[in-house]
Amino acid sequence: MTIKEIYEKFDTIGCLTFATINEKGEPETRIAHLRAYDEDGIYFMTMFTKEFYSQLKQVGKLSICGLNANTQIRHDENGFPIFEGGYAIRMTGDVQEVSIDEIKAKNNPIFDFCIKDQEIYNAMVVFCITAGYGDIFDYDFEKISRKNKLERIYFSYGNANIKYKGLKIDTNKCISCGICKTKCSFLAIIEDSTYSINSHRCDECGDCYLNCPVGAIYLKD
To answer: Which pTM was predicted?
Structure first.
């Protein structure tokens, strides 16, 4: 995915959860939104008078996530939750403060709102997520529009590397009994001479892990 495509997936959601670590090593979250993107990264703003700012400066990293779906959960006649299809997206990355003069020098209309906002609220500052990795969790648990419940789309940019999710099968231990495939409701098991797990479909639900008779399935580091 391009930086533009990643930005647009987040921007479709709008308000996102931004997570940082405070001076005690504790996680803190707040709601904010992204402002712009270019070839250098993805941009957002805060005020230097906020703890959010000091945490960004101290640690230089953050995680963001959001959900594009109905957040209200309905239940079926048995009390089980019904999740309407949608997607969640998350990203972890490195952040760097960018001066308003640098923003103006870009001479890019996408930053006009950043400039105007800083003129109104002088404490406003711009940060750029210069490198990031994450994934889109595109789900359809009721299988209304496709046969499988989940499609993960992985991405990264800058000097960040993609980090794939999901469990793995040790091919040296696998006896190709097929139990993992029968237990996987996400259709993530690939059948061959030995079995493997499709990281784009795996929900890490643990069914294969718990049912493998030879302990061939393990969690990724």
So the answer is: 0.92
